[in-house]
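Hi V.,

You were right to ask for the full record rather than a summary. Here it is.
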Amino acid sequence: MSQQQKYAELFAAEAREHLAEMGRALVALEGEPGDQASLDAIFRSVHTIKGMAAAMGYDVPTRLAHNIESVLDELRSGRRTVSTDVIDLLLETSDLLEGAVEATVASKTPADPSAAIERLVLWRLADAGASEPTPRPEADAAAQPAPAAEPLRAGAVSSRRSDTSRLRVDIRRLDALMNLMGELMILRGELKALADQLGAESLQDAVERAGRFIGEMQAHVVESRMVPVWQIFDRFPRLVRDASRSVGKEIELEISGKQLELDRSLLDAISDPLVHLLRNAVDHGIEPPDERDRAGKPRVGRIELTARRERSRVVIIIRDDGRGIDRDSVIAKARRDGLLGEGEEPTDQMLFRVMARPGFSTATQITTLSGRGVGLDVVEATIRGLGGSVGFRSEPGAGASFRLDLPLTLAILRALIVEVDGQVYALPVTFTRESFEVEETAVERAHGREWVHWRDERVPLTRLRTLFTGGERNGTSTEGAGFLNLVGLEFGESRLVVSVDEFLGEEEIVIKPFDPPRGAVPVFSGAIVRPDGRPALVLDVGNLS
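Predicted structure:
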């Protein structure tokens, strides 16, 4: 890769952050036209992009940024006031600026910005005192591209970076480092097993010391991949604003937990599912203003996007105060399609599974936004493919919420290792709450399945041996006294208890991709290599019930 290409990628990464900040701040400014902080933030972002583009010799982004900056200067000085029209204009031209940045960095020809620049110039001159003839955009001397400067220096990328303690690293290098770290962890386990087998005390001490250093290295590698979730969350106020206007609704989005950090690969992967859920909330969750008036609700609907840390996982919740799902319509269609039996009263989580089936929808009209159910199969498949789970709740007239439970990182997890029918499996600790024993006689049978009492609640029981082999019993104690070895699991808003034959302990595991054979039970999310060199399958907790 040439030096110019390296600088171009650096410029693009910085510009994307500033463009995301612009979108967020523009939506905030529309809601509070007197918010000087948002206006200043927009101006700083545009000014920085202009300076970087000029330093790189990029003509179109420089000209666009300069003319946007001129409009913002009118607003900052108080000569013009913030209105919906100017917000629309700035959002549209910021989209053009983003396209120009991406095209330029990719060595493609950006779209001609002349029409957009002319609109910006016309807006600046469109006041009662403007009597001069409208100049052509090219006549604006300040809008001309700056002379090509020295290549952009890594230490002078952004005026926001006043220290040198941050360094941008290509994600591919971090991926390669993480893969090597995973192999090193597998080797650590093999060495420990070999040292224990040989019984050499000096070798065991050396392996233990090496294990500590490898553990510290692993923690640093994982930390180097962590980025704050605001990097994608800041795009969503603009998305909700545009989507709500397209369907004639008034909606505000409240975001909390933006500083929470998540693995870069996970963050990229959950962007599309979050977009699906937000668009669903806008289109089918929140009611139109008149309907909310009749229901005694505020005209402005509310969507909350929250990120928080819970134990060894990250939880992201999207909640709206709309109408909730139409349970009767969903249940009726599910029964017509043979997905629910007559007389069966499903829980919210069961309804989500029905709605998440590909092609399932109760919508009678197609819109430009996703319907409640359209796209949920993508959401569930993506989140579960990441080793997470989706929880769902709905209250008629009060709204609905989706809860995404995710691991902190994709590659290295702690897992409870169990044995079932002579085979070894891994249960991610992210979802395991505790292990315990109950007598076989404590198992209850109702509604066509088995249940046990766990933490003062009756929870469904899944016998893994039955699930895997079709056997009739599972998990007796070593004395054969009729006890079940159980693991209590929590995922999303759901609880489940599974029975196993034996607990083998906890291990740090490196998950490898896994393609199950055709016809296999769809309850595996990956594979691992254990310290003895033998493989084991990782159980997909969300599919065990």
